[in-house]
Specification:
Elements (H helix, E strand, L loop, with lengths): L2 H10 L4 E4 L5 E6 L3 E8 L2 E7 L1 E6 L2 E6 L2 E5 L3 E8 L6 E7 L2 H14 L12 E4 L2 H12 L4 H20 L5 H6 L5 H14 L7 H7 L4 H12 L3 H18 L5 H7 L5 H12 L18
Antiparallel strand pairs: 1-2, 2-9, 3-8, 4-7, 4-9, 5-6, 5-8, 7-10
Length: 295
């Protein structure tokens, strides 16, 4: 990563932690502590690592993103992350929420006017190289973070250019599919949003499939292709991640938490929670790294 970017960010945000910026959907995160692999959830976002590296785990696949490779998460996904950091080698990244409307507009325009050679990817999330064009955009983005006026005037167009650059990358196959309304991937993206909103209610897979005008078989196939999980596995992970927030941050009781995230059995909730996180609900603690829920 460009040294000018690192110098500027270190000056603006010298301390560990999650830092807001003058742009609402841009945050910076710094840590000098190693964070072991933990379950989290990322929403639609771009993660630009400025220093250090992270390792993501999705359905037995490892994804490494560092100062040479950014990460794009095109939908809401349960994930596991490991952050490699120390006092000598801190981890520093920029977390950017991707504006859905902007991405819809860009993908539609690109599909009509550009001939892209996209690679066939197995995973929805993807990494790609931080080239000179992206570094240039990131440097301009960092340079305006000290000025409220410049952020208000220039921020949106700089971010739009950044989103365009990642949409033009050769690994952005699923990003295009999920933002073109005619694709099954776009239908799954829509239903993922519904699950995320209604995780605390009874979610019936045949009903979810019917709402998207898909057969249950087709729905299950495309859902797993995109998320790496079956719909039921995905719903469980969403519920358990939210449950950790209720317990560790909002200080809910175990019984109230179980019902709030859609469980009918407290004992089943406790069993699933311990299997997923490695500790019982009563010992719930916040995620030690940074998740997109905090953006």
């Amino acid at each position: 990563m460009n040294k000018n970017i690192l110098t500027k960010v270190d000056k603006l945000f010298p301390e560990d932690g999650l830092h807001s910026t003058l742009l609402d959907n841009v945050k910076l995160y710094k840590t000098t502590q190693y964070n072991p692999k933990e379950p989290i959830i990322y929403e639609l976002c771009l993660i630009l690592v400025l220093k250090g590296k992270k390792t993501g785990y999705l359905s037995n696949k490892q994804i490494q993103y560092d100062a040479k490779n950014y990460l794009v998460v095109p939908t809401i996904l349960p994930f596991e992350c490991e952050t490699h950091a120390s006092k000598e080698e801190p981890f520093l990244c920029m977390l950017i929420s991707i504006n859905k409307q902007t991405m819809y507009e860009l993908v539609k325009k690109i599909s009509k006017g550009e001939s892209l050679k996209l690679k066939k990817n197995e995973l929805t999330v993807f990494t790609d190289k931080i080239d000179d064009k992206i570094e240039d955009v990131v440097l301009r983005l960092v340079n305006i973070l000290e000025s409220k006026v410049e952020c208000q005037i220039l921020g949106e167009q700089i971010l739009r250019e950044l989103f365009y650059r990642i949409a033009m990358s050769e690994n952005s196959t699923f990003l295009h599919k999920m933002f073109l309304d005619t694709n099954n991937e776009a239908k799954i993206s829509k239903t993922i949003g519904e699950i995320h909103k209604n995780y605390g209610t009874h979610l019936d897979i045949p009903t979810l499939a019917r709402l998207e005008d898909m057969s249950v078989s087709s729905y299950n196939t495309h859902f797993k292709k995109i998320t790496s999980y079956t719909p039921l596995q995905y719903i469980k992970k969403i519920r358990l991640n939210k449950a950790r927030d209720y317990l560790a941050i909002k200080k809910y009781q175990v019984k109230d938490t179980a019902y709030a995230v859609g469980y009918e059995s407290i004992s089943q909730f406790s069993k699933d929670f311990k299997n997923y996180f490695g500790y019982p609900p009563k010992d719930a603690k916040p995620y030690s790294g940074i998740s997109n829920f905090e953006l």
